[in-house]
Amino acid sequence: TGSVHLRTESLLQEALRKDQFVLHFQPLFRLDDQTLIGAEVLLRLWLGDDTPLPPATFIPIAESTGQIVEIGEWVLRRVCRQIHAWDAQGFPPIPLSINVSAIELSHADLTPRLRHILDQSHIPVARIHIEITETAIAHNEDQALANINALRAAGFEVWIDDFGTGYSSLKSIKNFPISGLKLDREFVKDLAHSPAAKAITGSILSMARQLGYPVVGEGIEHAAQLQFLK
After folding, report:
1. Which residues pair with 45 in a beta bridge?
2. pLDDT score at 168
3. Among 189, 178, 83, 81, which Cα is nearest to 136's?
4. pLDDT of 54-81, one tens digit each?
C-alpha cells in the first residue's frame, strides 16, 4: 500500500542518515577442496525493535525511489572498510561480491562511480566482483551491455546472479561479456528430491562447462545438494 511504501522510504532515509544498515558475508567455497575463495555481501536492515526488514521488502522500494544508488555507494564504502580491517588482521585476501541493481545498471556513470570509491579507499578492482541479475539486464539491455563492457574493461569480474530464473538466460550469456554464473538457489534447494531441478541444473552445468564459465551454487545446505553439484 501507499502508506507502507512511504513508511519504508522514510525508514531507508533514516537508515542512511544514522548508518543503520548492516552487512553480512555469505562464504564462497571451492567444492573440490573446500577452500574459502570469496564471499557475497548481503545487505540487512534492522528496525528499532530488533525486527529485520526483509530485503525483498525494502530493495524494490529503494529502487523505485532511486535511493538504491546511494545505498549501493554506502555498501561499497563499507565493504572497502571491511577489506582493510580483514587485511590488517592478516586474513587471506578474497574477493567480495556486491549486487548491482537494475537502476544502478541503467546509469551510464556506474563504472566511474565504483572506481572512484575504490580509488578513494585504495582497494584494487580485483577485490570486488559485481553481480547482476538477468532481470536487471532486461530492464535496459543496451545500457546494461555498455555498462558491463565498461566494468570488464575496468577490471571487474561480472557474474550473472540467480541464473535460470530470467526470461533472457541464454541471451544473457551469449551477448554479454560475463565472468561466470550463479545458479539460483531455487534449483539448488530442490536438488535432493526434484528430477526436474536435477535435469535443469545438470544442463546448466554442462553448458557452462562447454562455454568455460565457472558456476556458483547458491544456498547449499544439505549433503545431497553438495554431492550432486560435485
Report:
1. 21, 53
2. 54
3. 178
4. 888 889 889 988 899 999 999 999 999 9
pLDDT digit string (tens) for 90-111?
999 999 999 999 999 999 999 9
Do 137 and 104 contact (CB within 8 A), yes or no?
no
Counting runs of H as helices and runs of E as strands, what totals does the chain give?
A: 11, 8
Q: Which three cell numbers stand for residue 10?
A: 522514510
Could you report the per-residue pLDDT of 111-128, keeping only the tens digit for each? 999 999 999 999 999 999
Q: How far is CA 169 from CA 105, 124, 137, in A?
A: 17, 30, 10
Phi, psi of 80 (to 5 degrees): -60, -40
Q: Which residue has the cell 528496525?
A: 47
List the beta bridge partners of residue 43: 23
| Strand 52-53 to 157-163 pairing | unpaired
The three three-digit cell numbers of residue 103, written as one number: 537502476
Residue 45 cell numbers, joined: 536492515
- For the chain, what is the mean pLDDT? 90
